[in-house]
Every structure is written in structure tokens, then in C-alpha cells.
Amino acid sequence: MSSSQDLVKCSFNTDDMGQLLYKENYHKWIKVQELIAKDPILQNNVADYGQSRDKLYEIYCKKAYKLHKLLNYSDEMIPGMVNSQFPETVVTVLHQTMFIPTIKYLGTEKQIEKWIPPSQNYEIVGCYAQTELGHGSDVQSLETTAVYDKGTEEFILNSPTISSTKWWIGDLGLTATHAVTHAQLFINGKHYGVQTFIVQVRDTHTHLPLKGIEVGDVGPKYGYNTKDNGYLRMNNVRIPREQMLMRYSKVSKAGEFIKAQNEKIGYATMMQVRTSIIYNTYVSLAQGLAIGVKYSHFRRQFKDKNGIERPIIDYQTQQDKLIPLVADCYAQGFGCLRIRDILTENLKRITEKNDFSLMGDLHALLCCCKAVYTWNTHFGLDKIRQSLGGHGFLQSSGVVSIQTEFAPSCTYEGENTVLLLQTGRYLLKACNKAQKHQTINENVEYLYNIQQTLSQKATFTRAEQLLCPEIIRKLMRLHAAFYVNKMMLKMMEKAGEHGPKEAWNKHVGVSITEASIAHTYYWTFKTFLDTLIKVQDENIRSVLSNLCCLYGLQRIIDWPIGYFEGGFLNGEQLEIILNAKEHIFTLIKPDLLGLVESFKFNDNALRSDLVDAKPYEKLLQSAKLSSVNNEEYQNKLRSLTRQLREMPKL
């Protein structure tokens, strides 16, 4: 692509920026892409587009087999890196990202010793069976039952209702031999809540379902064509007592239930999974932007006064579609790096000291970031697709597959609205603590002296002042405090009128989600700012500062009502913000190609005809390879169209 001259103008070294984005995983990221691009089984093939679902599943089974031979899947970063390289989801990824971690976190040393080696060797393939037809987010209302039989020292698992059918379980429909299964535990008729069990669903030699097991695929979906999301029903399925994961909660041979000291430990696997999802919001948006920005430098439309066609990236409207998303992508990337650090520290405290003190803060952060980041990436990818014009609608653009594969992220492993409500509950508690001068996490320090905070106003008078991230940080801090305070006041009012539960469910939900979103925006901006302050390279720090400012200004422009309702901004200042945003476009544009080159995707990973050196020739070549253009199909089609033409006329 003829963008090398534009890349020369870049003010910073893209390798150095890439190392900032991927940290210790930078060289691993490059190596994984190179390995996949060189392998004839793994490399992407345009001929795979339009294949039937069963054929795609076969193709990706072969890819999965080759990947497991070549890569160390015990490295928790590998599954996320690998998945981004293909237009469809790799088979068995949930085996590594959910099945194995659940056993590691919730299993005893003896259980880990028994189950992890065969799992890592793929003697068994697992999945994570929590969601049911009738309940997803409401885990405590799951209906699958596990009744302990003291006489045989077994659990008897059943799906007593249609709505108790396990549903949407990835890798279950066709692949898995075992399932980490969540069920309501009963001992001698007494209920002990949801516990976690390992259930074998298929024979490891014949791959046939075991006695009492009904299992299958849920059918065609919006995307995820290679992912065998499955259903599971159980009828008096017996498993040994030792197949309840018992690191924390336990059932003795005699049927005595020993409760976990901290029931939140059951959430440990989901924390890691949500961190992976948040990482994927960065990777998926980065992929889309690499395609959109590169093609926008190549594509020319409409002549200037000298008769020369302009690259479409020169038009402000195209910049407005793409440049704010580049800022979002960097913000989410740095947010994910910070979350990973907190997750690592949390798991270290739990395993080494049985210290759960970070769980609540991390849970709230994961919930709101998963919700806000997945929504932002989902809608951002569609904006990128539209920025490509008609070509963006082609599978061979590369963006379509990224978009459809990403779309379920807004729902799975926590429906976004429900997650925002959970963060809102945390914010309410933090607000109450702050009012009582109790200690709260640094992420919500803005809740101290909240009334004094809300009396402040923006004082800037010129666009140049908004090139200082600290000024924008203070504004966004006011915005977060305003929405949390608004939520708290409304909750107090409606709880007094209707009681806390009805107030929460029927009257305050929108205010709660607004507070959680405002909190997420502020935390993300602050994390971005904290990151760039530590950068030693002056050129990188300068461009990141511009991106950070743009991220904050775009949040204000997209959602200004709170700034006006709180009295923090006036109309004249909003106009200054709009002018500052346009000015930042001019500062970022010379570095735009460098910013997406820093994502370090090779051509195989982007799988887009639009980033080829000759995109128009590549598009035509791909079209000719379409299965409907082959001679066999054309001959069949001629017969059908002839019948159509020979139909009796009215």
C-alpha cells in the first residue's frame, strides 16, 4: 500500500510504542503471528469464506490441532493472541480459558493433580457449563440440581425443568468430553447453594454421550460459526464425590457441608475470563482500525483544484470517524494492562495469604470496564466498517468477521447492563463509606467531600488549555462525582417511597448504569494519564498526551448533559471543546499510520484485501475465487435460470 511516505512522517518509533502496548508480551505477539502466517494449515485462506458451518468446523479443528502442537497453551496469554489471528473462533479455546483455570482455582491439590495433566495433554477436552435456558446473569437461580447420595458417596445431577437445560455452553455442542458444571447442591433435603462439579459428558474413546446425558449444538447464530455452543440435559447422572471442586467449599463422605470462608472465590475464574474479554476489546478495535486507517490513506476520492484526487483520510469527516476510535483503542489497551496487574496481585494475595481484600474493588472494575469497553468496540467496529464504504461490507475487507465474532462479547460472561448494576452497587457502598470518612479504594477517591467537589466549575477559556490532560481529568472527575451523587440521592428518595428492593429494580436502574459508565470513563482516562506520565520517550509521550486529551474530550462531547446539569460547563466552553478536538485532529493525523502500525498486526492477521499493496486487484481476485463463480456451480445455475425464464408468462 502506498502509505510508506506517510509512515516516514511519524514522529515516534512504532516498535517502541508497540512494546509499551504489549509490555513483556511484545516479542511473543510478533512470534505467534509469524508462526501462524508461515504455516499452510494455519494461515488464512480467502477460499474459506462462504464455507458451510460443518466444513468450517472441520477446518478449525485442524487448525486447533496444529496450534496445540506448536504453542504452549499453558501460557494464559496464548489463547487471546491466537484467536485474534483468524476470522472464526478457534475450537477448544474455552478448554484453556475456562475449564482448566476453574479446576486450578477451585480444585484441591489432589484434584489438580488428577485433572490438569490430561487436560493439558488433550486426553480430555472441557467446557464451562453455567448458563441455562432460564437463567444467565442470575446465577443463584440456576435450576440444575446435584443431590448427594451418602450411601454411594456420589452426586446425582439432574435437569429437572426445560429452563434448567444448560445453554450457550461453548465447545460443548460437538467437542467437549467433560464440563465444569454449576448446580444447586442438596444434602438430606437441605439446600447449600450453587457449587461446581466436573461432569463427564462423552466417552473419551467413542465420543458418544454417556448414559443420562443429552447433548447437542444450539444451532445457527449471528456469528461464531466455528464455535459449537451447546446444550446439556442430565437425567440421574452420577459422579463420584471427588468430582465436586473442593478447595474452598467441601462435602465430607458422611455428607457434612463445609462452607467456604469467602464465597467470592467462585468468581476467580470469571475474573480472569473478563480480563481476557477486556483485552480483546483492545485487540479487535486495533485490528479494525489498522484496516480502516491504512485503507483511508490509499483510497482517493474527488479532485482538488489541481485535478489530483485526495486520500479520503484528508477529509475531516473521515478523520472524525477514525481518529477518536484510535484514542479509545489506546485508552482501552492501557486500561487492560492496569487491570491485568490488579488481577495478578489479587490472585497472588488469595493463593499466598488467603487475602480477599481486593476482590470487591476488582470485581466492580471488571464489571464496568467489560460493559463499557465491549459496547465501545462493538459500535466502533461498525463505524469503521461504514468508513470503508461499500467495500467494508465484503468479507474480504476483514472488518466483517472481526465485527461478527466480537458481537457476542456484549452479552456473554456477564450481560452488560447487569454488570453496570453490580458496579453501581459498589459505588453506592463506597459513597456511604466516604460520607462516614471510612477508607475507600483509590479508584473512587473522588467520593470524599463530594459536595465540596460538586461546587467546582471549569475555568478554561481557550482551546490551547485543553491540550493539558490534567484539566480534562478534573472535569471528568466532576462528571463521575455528579452521577454517583445523583444516583445516591435518587436511591435514597425512591427507597423511602417504595423500599430498597423495589427502588433498585423499578426506579433507579438507569441512574445506576449512568453512574457506572461515568465512573468507567474517569477511571480509564486517569489510567491513560498515569501511563503516559511514566513514558520516558518524549515523542511517544507527546502523541499519547494528544490521544489522552482526545479520549476525554470525545467523552464530554458525546455525553454533555451531566456537565451542564451539574453546572460545570457553559455553552461557550463546549464550543471551545469542539474547537480543541478539531485542533487535536491536525496534531494526530501525521502520526495516524504510525499509531496503527504500533498495533503490530501482520497482513495475515488483518486478513484484509484492503491493506494489500494493490487492494483493487486483490478484491477482484478474491471475488473470482468465490464458490458461486466456479464452473460446476455456473453450469448448475444455467439450468435453474433457464427454468425461471421459461416459466409461463402472465
UniProtKB/TrEMBL annotation:
Subcellular location: Peroxisome
One GO term of the biological process aspect: fatty acid beta-oxidation using acyl-CoA oxidase
Domain named Acyl-CoA oxidase C-alpha1: residues: 267-428
Keyword Oxidoreductase in record: yes
Lineage top rank: taxon: Eukaryota
All copies of domain Acyl-CoA oxidase C-terminal, residue ranges: 469-639
Annotated Acyl-CoA oxidase/dehydrogenase middle domain residues: 127-237
Gene3D superfamilies assigned: Acyl-CoA dehydrogenase/oxidase, N-terminal domain, Butyryl-CoA Dehydrogenase, subunit A, domain 2, Butyryl-CoA Dehydrogenase, subunit A, domain 3
UniProt keyword Transmembrane helix present: no
Entry-linked Pfam families: ACOX (PF01756), ACOX_C_alpha1 (PF22924), Acyl-CoA_dh_M (PF02770), Acyl-CoA_ox_N (PF14749)
Active site: 413
Residue ranges annotated for the Acyl-coenzyme A oxidase N-terminal domain, each copy included: 15-125
This protein's UniProt keywords: Coiled coil, FAD, Fatty acid metabolism, Flavoprotein, Lipid metabolism, Oxidoreductase, Peroxisome
Residues annotated as binding FAD: 131, 170
Catalytic reaction annotation: a 2,3-saturated acyl-CoA + O2 = a (2E)-enoyl-CoA + H2O2
Record-level Gene Ontology MF annotations: acyl-CoA oxidase activity; FAD binding; fatty acid binding; flavin adenine dinucleotide binding
SUPFAM superfamilies noted in UniProt: Acyl-CoA dehydrogenase C-terminal domain-like, Acyl-CoA dehydrogenase NM domain-like
A GO term from the CC aspect: peroxisome
Subcellular location, principal: other
UniProt xrefs under InterPro entries: ACOX_C_alpha1, Acyl-CoA_ox_N, Acyl-CoA_Oxase/DH_mid-dom, Acyl-CoA_Oxase/DH_mid-dom_sf, Acyl-CoA_oxidase, Acyl-CoA_oxidase_C, AcylCo_DH-like_C, AcylCoA_DH/ox_N_sf
Coiled coil: 623-650
Protein family membership: Belongs to the acyl-CoA oxidase family.
Protein's name according to its UniProt entry: Acyl-coenzyme A oxidase
Taxonomic classification: Eukaryota, Sar, Alveolata, Ciliophora, Intramacronucleata
